[in-house]
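Good morning C.,

I know you're traveling, so I'll keep this short. The sequence:
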Amino acid sequence: MGDVGSFAFGTALAVVAIMLNAMLLIPVIGLMFVIEVASSALQLISKKNIW
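The tokens, ready to paste straight into the viewer:
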């Protein structure tokens, strides 16, 4: 899933959380994006052999 798909998915989950008054799910949804960015960063670092 690319950036467009993950952003759409995250936005949909956030809207559902707001509509259901389940505000505690929003940090969990945000964590998904943090993990995705960290994964991309690790892939770039390992491919460039910075270490």
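Safe travels,
E.
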